[in-house]
Each structure stands twice: as structure tokens, then as C-alpha cells.
Amino acid sequence: MIDASSNIPKHVAIIMDGNGRWAQERGKNRIFGHRTGKKAVQNIVETAAKHKIDYLTLYAFSTENWKRPPLEVNTLMDLLIRSLKRELKQMLENNIRLQSIGALESLPVEVQKALQHTIEQTKNNSGMVLTLALNYGAHQEITQAVRSIATKVKNNIISPEKIDQNIINKHLYTRNLPAVDLLIRTSGEQRISNFLLWQIAYAELYFTEVLWPDFNETHFCAAIKSYQKRERRFGKTSEQLQEK
Ligand code: IPE
Ligand code: IPE
Ligand code: MG
Q1: Is residue 59 part of a domain?
Q2: 59 lines ligand 2 (CB under 6 A)
Q3: C-beta of 17 in contact with ligand 2 (< 6 A)
């Protein structure tokens, strides 16, 4: 287990990868991997809440994932609708507040409805904030932020010299979230795949070979322990950090 007294990351983000390979290793089709991956999501959400993570952000569907075969895309959307409905009870019991980031307006209407319902039902919860990244891509997020800021400049709402990091933050989908402290990616791939580019500027990165459907509490705690051993210098020297 982890030492709760030392340096728990406030914001953990996870690229949940490897469902397809997990299924293929078992001679099954990719869909089976997504179904099993859904159980890992439930388990990790509860684990993160139990270990007092304030913000958990999960990459569930990228702007690039529409390029997958239609059957896979449709199944992922169906699984999402069903888990949102089924997990509401778990979220209420665990005091979890759901929110979502991404180009949500382009998701199927049924997904949007299920999302809105769960977000509404959990909005007064005061525990962990669970953010699902759906139809999310950092390039798309930054593009819409630039467009929105440019429109405000044109309408004399913001002057160009006032544009700073804070204003940019406020125009991202993650405006209510702190920067990511720890980014985990499962399945052995060591890339970001268009996730939270701005928000991970100073995140600690943790890559594991474990495929997402197998990712459990022990693996999650191993990532937290690795984080706790690191020195985050934010540009300073190690000596400067010791002085405090
Ligand atoms: C992650 O698993 C789930 C989504 C991207 C929706 P993958 O489906 O990418 O699994 P692999 O990478 O093909 O094994
Ligand atoms: C990233 O995984 C997206 C999600 C986990 C939702 P992918 O499997 O789509 O990433 P790439 O295409 O291998 O980089
Ligand atoms: Mg993948």
C-alpha cells in the first residue's frame, strides 16, 4: 500500500491503453478487451477515491479514435452509455463528482444525454473529481481555445497584451482542474497520443507494460510510490528545494 502521509499527487491522469491487445492475446476480438477494460475503470476509480486522489482524469476516447472500424466505435459508445448508467450508484456512494472534457457536442446524442444526467446527479458531491476525456484531443482543445480568445480580442473583450497563461488556462476544457501531477500510460507505449499537452507541462510520467484490463490497485499504488520518490524541481536546483 502507499504512504498516505507523503506527497500524494493531487491530479492523476491515465491513458488507458491495451484493451485490444489484451483480447487478442486471448484469441478474442477487441470488443472483449473493452468490456473487461470497463471493469478496470470501475476498480481504479474506487481505488483512486480510496487513496484520496482529488482529481482523476481518464482518457476514454480520442478525437483520432473515430478512425477505428465503425463496429468498434459503436460498441465503445454503447459501453459508455451503459457504464454511466450503471456506475451512478458507485459514484454517489463514493462521493465522486463526474465531469467531462472534449468536443462533447459531436458525441452521439445518447452519450451526451447519459453524460449530462450523471454529471447533474453527482454535481453536489464533494469528494474526488472524475473527469472523462471523450472525443478529446489536445490539438482540438487548443484550437478551440485560440478561436475563442481571438473572437474576444476582435470584440474588444480582451486586449492582446493581456493574454497570459491564466487566460489560456481559462479557455481550455480543463479550466476547473489543476495541472496534472502524474500521468500514467498502460500497455508499454511511450507516447502521449494527443492527451492534455498543455496540462502535462510539468507532470511526472509513468509508463507500465501492464495492459489496461489487468491494471489493478497494486499497479496503481506502484505508480503512486514511484511518484513519491521523485523530486519535482520545476526548474530550480535540488539544493534550493532542500532549503525550505
Ligand atoms: C484503449 O485500448 C482503449 C481505447 C483507445 C478506446 P486500445 O483499444 O487502444 O487497445 P490496443 O492499444 O489496441 O491494445
Ligand atoms: C489513446 O490510445 C487514446 C485512449 C486511450 C482513449 P490509442 O490506442 O488510441 O493511441 P495510439 O493511436 O496507439 O497512439
Ligand atoms: Mg491503443
Answers
A1: yes
A2: yes
A3: yes
